[in-house]
Design brief:
There is one protein chain. The chain is built from 2 helices and 6 strands. The protein has a 3-stranded mixed beta sheet, covered by helices on one side. Strands 4-3-5 form a 3-stranded antiparallel beta sheet, with no helix packed on it. The N and C termini lie far apart (52 Å). It has 129 residues and is α+β, with helices and mostly antiparallel strands. Strand 3 and strand 4 form a beta hairpin. Helix content is 28%, strand content 28%. Helix 1 packs across helix 2. It has a domain of 84 residues: hypothetical protein PF0899 fold, CATH 3.30.2320.
């Protein structure tokens, strides 16, 4: 495979490791095996390839107590606000122009996020009698 493929994958690999580290910070010790779902919000301008992130996360947790955890990636569209007229709009492609007044004086208000927003654990008591 070309070297650019591996370089790109290394980026997502380090992000996936960061997600595992965050899980370790927020899930009580001894409950890692109970983690079933990890929701991550990734902005379209965050520089992350969602499929690669999902693959890397699966590779990292495979064979560990987090092995049952699944990554759910929510992609956030790029939205901007015009500083001239206040219009909030979705950015299409690379056109950072206000559709209302045509101004290029805009601020990005979403689409750059990379956040763990939820960690879901299984209910151990659900199967207990």
């Amino acid at each position: 495979m070309p070297s650019f493929f591996w370089k790109g994958l290394m980026h997502e690999l380090s992000i996936a490791q960061g997600i595992v580290d965050i899980i370790g910070q927020y899930v009580p010790e001894g409950q890692a095996a109970d983690v079933r779902l990890v929701k991550v919000r990734v902005g379209q301008m965050a520089g992350v390839v969602p499929d690669s992130l999902d693959f890397c996360f699966g590779a990292i947790v495979n064979g560990t107590p987090l092995g049952q955890a699944r990554l759910c990636i929510e992609e956030t569209p790029v939205r901007s606000q015009c500083t001239a007229c206040g219009e909030v709009f979705a950015v299409e492609g690379a056109a950072f122009l206000c559709p209302c007044c045509g101004s290029a004086d805009v601020s990005v208000i979403s689409g750059t996020e990379l956040q763990v927003v939820e960690i879901e654990l299984s209910d151990r008591q659900a199967g207990a009698v």
